Automatic annotation (TrEMBL), chain A:
<feature type="region of interest" description="Disordered">
    <location>
        <begin position="343"/>
        <end position="364"/>
    </location>
</feature>
<comment type="pathway">
    <text>tRNA modification; 5-methoxycarbonylmethyl-2-thiouridine-tRNA biosynthesis.</text>
</comment>
<dbReference type="GO" id="GO:0002098">
    <property type="term" value="P:tRNA wobble uridine modification"/>
</dbReference>
<keyword id="KW-0539">Nucleus</keyword>
<protein>
    <recommendedName>
        <fullName>Elongator complex protein 4</fullName>
    </recommendedName>
</protein>
<dbReference type="GO" id="GO:0008023">
    <property type="term" value="C:transcription elongation factor complex"/>
</dbReference>
<keyword id="KW-0819">tRNA processing</keyword>
<dbReference type="InterPro" id="IPR027417">
    <property type="entry name" value="P-loop_NTPase"/>
</dbReference>
<dbReference type="Pfam" id="PF05625">
    <property type="entry name" value="PAXNEB"/>
</dbReference>
Automatic annotation (TrEMBL), chain B:
<comment type="pathway">
    <text>tRNA modification; 5-methoxycarbonylmethyl-2-thiouridine-tRNA biosynthesis.</text>
</comment>
<dbReference type="InterPro" id="IPR027417">
    <property type="entry name" value="P-loop_NTPase"/>
</dbReference>
<protein>
    <recommendedName>
        <fullName>Elongator complex protein 6</fullName>
    </recommendedName>
</protein>
<dbReference type="InterPro" id="IPR018627">
    <property type="entry name" value="ELP6"/>
</dbReference>
<dbReference type="GO" id="GO:0033588">
    <property type="term" value="C:elongator holoenzyme complex"/>
</dbReference>
<dbReference type="Pfam" id="PF09807">
    <property type="entry name" value="ELP6"/>
</dbReference>
<dbReference type="GO" id="GO:0002098">
    <property type="term" value="P:tRNA wobble uridine modification"/>
</dbReference>
<comment type="similarity">
    <text>Belongs to the ELP6 family.</text>
</comment>
Length: 364, 256
């Protein structure tokens, strides 16, 4: 069975094998997707579900930013943390002079309340390891939160808790400052060698991650050379396609010409946009339930479809981004608030979500 | 494999057989990809007559992708390539090689045209073959490879068009219409629309995407000669739904 990976492997990656052990993939952090693809998790359980299971290996994800709000950072943080938890090689680039600083803001996987008290207990009673509890922690580290003793494909991340140090040690993590790059050629070389290293890895597929934040930032020298940026993304896309990695690139359309933005959107295999929600907007508060908890809106415009010509048609394309208990990012269908009888207009009941909303105030 | 394909709305609107000497421009946008039209035309070109051949310039995907997609539609590209009926030029790989050797975009495009012309001439001289189709997927990526020199790309396409007149071959090019919508001055897309005999535009429905209807097609068939000697255009508009093994075309509201 030939997968999207460039080297067809007989043996453990055949579809039958995957189907036999459907809940436990042979490689933590990867699972089988449709049409012979392999997926890795975005780090956001709701987003994985929306995208049909996760992000396909070999795909290019483009996130369009909203200059009014840094929601794309939420997506990047979860994406990067998920990769580190699964020990997948990571290369991160941003316009900052010291991109390593961003790693300190990566979230830690959520520890559920039961496990918290259990961890607390085992720390106190070091000598006493109760057998039935011990089974829960098949791995050596009790600090890693495993549910059911096995790694989750997708973790729930606690945005208020930073990722523990041991996830950063000894792994392939590379940080690049785009500001320091005079042109993108050198950075492309770095990505190419990163990908060939990630591919080798003793012949096992682990999946690799490339996270590029704010590619068109004006701090970067090359930012006014649109054809160069396009050429870079195009070349990146073609090397990623032949690899077992996923690349996420964010950019702000307000910083570049419309034609450039559309070309970049065409290059994307998966295209997502994030938008800010204005605070204290009375009109929106009336229209949407749960408005106060929303931090932003996420729209899915394109979903990667390899080896098939059938497009992915989603039930709904726009979701609200909420921070549950101010800790974890959830995406919800937008529910339009029930309209009071006096107005009499038919907005539809709560629960019906429409990507092409009738209200003029939305412009997704 | 039957030579006569069951007729559908798209084939009908294209008129006639795979009929030589035509340039077809396929325009799509971010919301609705026109790749399925390219797949359909490619399959048509390879199935119609056992002596027809295709030169495929791919800037977007490797052969493996098209192979898998077309296989589900009942067309085996690997076999066609082995039978010399398909010449697949993987521009992603070739471009990388040429750039490393320090060639300019102009050199690359000139060399590329040379290859196409040679392939067409060889096929023509070969007694059995008589119709070549050149497929380009897609033109906007050609521009990126040419570092934005749309003039170079336009020249290249004009030369390819001359092949249609000279050798009676067909040219099918995919381009993204929405990329040029904000560019005012005469741009590449307008020039291509002018050169083309048939323009196939793929757009979403006004109401957005739906599971049953994936979008709409507008086929404009220009330069049709009528009896009075004047030329006029014929416009067809219908909707489509894409499946793995085929595409359904139907008039709005008439889908069963």
């Amino acid at each position: 069975m030939v997968m999207a990976a460039n080297k067809p492997r007989s043996g453990s990656f055949s579809r039958n094998f995957g189907a036999a052990s459907s809940s436990v993939p042979s490689i933590p952090g990867l699972k089988h997707g449709p049409n012979g693809t392999m997926l890795l998790s975005s780090g956001i359980p709701d987003l994985d579900k929306i995208l049909g299971g996760g992000l396909a290996l070999g795909s290019l994800v483009v996130v369009t930013e909203d200059p009014e709000a840094p929601h794309h950072m939420l997506l990047l943080r979860n994406f990067m943390s998920q990769g580190l938890v699964h020990r997948q090689p990571l290369i991160y680039a941003s316009p900052a002079s010291d991109p390593r600083g961003f790693l300190g803001t990566l979230p830690s996987p959520m520890v559920s309340k039961d496990e918290k008290s259990r961890v607390h207990e085992t720390e106190q009673e070091k000598g006493l390891r109760i057998a039935w509890q011990y089974k829960k922690y098949i791995g050596e580290h009790t600090s890693e939160s495993h549910r059911g003793g096995k790694s989750e494909y997708c973790n729930d991340f606690d945005l208020r808790k930073p990722l523990e140090r041991h996830f950063f040690s000894g792994k392939q993590i590379d940080c690049v400052s785009l500001k320091e790059s005079a042109d993108l050629g050198a950075f492309h070389e770095r990505c190419s060698s990163f990908l060939s290293q990630a591919n080798q890895n003793n012949g096992n597929i682990t999946g690799g991650r490339i996270a590029i934040q704010s590619l068109c930032s004006p701090q970067c020298e090359y930012s006014n050379r649109e054809w160069e940026m396009l050429s870079f993304v195009r070349s990146l896309k073609s090397v990623v396609r032949l690899s077992n990695a996923v690349a996420v690139v964010t950019f702000s359309p307000s910083l570049v010409s419309t034609t450039f933005s559309i070309r970049l959107q065409h290059l994307a295999d998966t295209l997502v946009s994030v938008k800010a929600i204005p605070d204290e907007d009375k009109e929106l508060a009336k229209l949407l339930t749960g408005y106060q908890d929303m931090v932003g809106l996420l729209s899915v415009h394109k979903v990667a479809r390899f080896n098939t010509q059938v497009p992915a048609i989603l039930e709904t394309t726009t979701f609200s981004m909420k921070l549950q208990k101010r800790r974890s990012l959830v995406l919800e269908c937008i529910n339009q608030a029930p309209v009071d009888g006096a107005t009499g207009s038919s907005y539809g009941s709560s629960g019906s979500c429409s990507g092409s909303s009738k209200t003029g105030s939305f412009d997704f | 494999m039957a030579n006569a394909l069951p007729s559908n709305l798209l084939d009908e609107s294209l008129g006639g057989s795979s009929g030589g000497g035509r340039m077809i421009l396929v325009e799509d946008c971010v919301e609705t990809s026109g790749a399925f039209v390219v797949h359909h035309l490619l399959k048509r070109a390879l199935n119609s007559h056992s002596s027809d051949a295709v030169v495929f310039l791919s800037f977007s995907h490797p052969l493996s992708h098209y192979d898998r997609v077309l296989r589900k539609m009942g067309c085996n590209l690997s076999v066609q390539r082995d039978n010399k009926r398909l010449l697949f030029l993987d521009m992603l790989a070739l471009d990388h090689l040429d750039r490393n050797r320090g060639k300019t975009s102009e050199d690359i495009l000139i060399a590329l045209y040379g290859e196409i012309q040679k392939a067409v001439e060889i096929s023509r001289s070969h007694e059995a073959r008589h119709h070549i189709t050149v497929v380009i997927d897609d033109v906007s990526l050609m521009e990126v490879d040419a570092n934005g020199s749309s003039d170079l790309v336009l020249d290249f396409l004009r030369y390819c068009c001359s092949l249609t007149a000279q050798f009676g071959c067909s040219l099918i090019a995919l381009n993204h219409g929405d990329v040029y919508s904000t560019v005012d001055q005469p741009n590449l897309l307008l020039q291509l629309e002018y050169l083309a005999d048939i323009v196939i535009k793929i757009e979403p429905l006004a109401t957005g995407l739906a599971k049953d209807v994936h979008g709409q097609l507008t086929v404009t068939n220009r330069n049709l000669r009528v009896d009075s000697g004047k030329s006029r255009s014929r416009i067809h508009n219908f909707q489509f739904r894409i499946k793995d093994n085929s595409v359904e075309y139907f008039y709005p509201g008439s889908k069963t």
